[in-house]
């Protein structure tokens, strides 16, 4: 019975992995001062576990901290989607250029941090121009220290909803749960699970992803306050 259970669990895990895509993020941020920073990010996604790569994006931008709890961000990027069934299989499904404006609001409850993110996107897609509006609620909890600093392990949970100004209006929902480790002031690594549900036209397909994030933060001038590793997606 024990051997049968082990075999069943192995087959189940293998089947789950085969149906889970990969979502890989490389993010770099440059702190110019306590208020200003620049960022760049690259993403590569697949519909199966590190196979059937169909999507990539490259983006950059700048953020300005109004206060400890409020910041503004603007950015731009390219977002390309290919047909499922192969690695960047032709024909290309969507060729998109995007800009956005964003407001972040942070709240602190002892060591737990909450963030509300509001974003308005302007999208030039293969189907013409489209607007999109996003709201993300996330929470970060350091496990072995009172705040996130080098050597800290942390948990990260978020949920994001997407709307448009066209029917059916509700476009997508993303739920993420994961954990990370800040190795140093320069580098953090985060691993988690992303579940996605959407009404899509020509955007990325897929429902479940293993998300792996490499997060770098450089300082042109030493920054005070807590650093909270996060991608810009």
Query: What amount of the residues lies in strands?
Result: over 45%
Q: Approximately how much helix is present in the residues? A: under 10%
**In CATH's first tier, which class applies?**
Mainly Beta
Question: Mean of residue pLDDT?
Answer: 88
What does this structure look like?
With 233 residues, the protein is mainly β. The protein has a single domain, classed as Porin (Beta Barrel), CATH 2.40.160. The protein is 7% helix and 65% strand. It is built from one helix and eleven strands, in the order αβββββββββββ. An eleven-stranded mixed barrel has the order 1-2-3-4-5-6-7-8-9-10-11. β9 (170-182) and β10 form a beta hairpin.
Could you write a compact summary of the structure shown?
With 233 residues, this protein is mainly β.
Descriptive tags:
single chain; eleven-stranded mixed β-barrel; Porin; mainly beta
List the topology elements.
Elements: H1 2-18, E1 21-31, E2 36-48, E3 51-65, E4 70-83, E5 89-109, E6 112-125, E7 128-142, E8 153-163, E9 170-182, E10 187-198, E11 208-219
Parallel strand pairs: 1-11
Antiparallel strand pairs: 1-2, 2-3, 3-4, 4-5, 5-6, 6-7, 7-8, 8-9, 9-10, 10-11
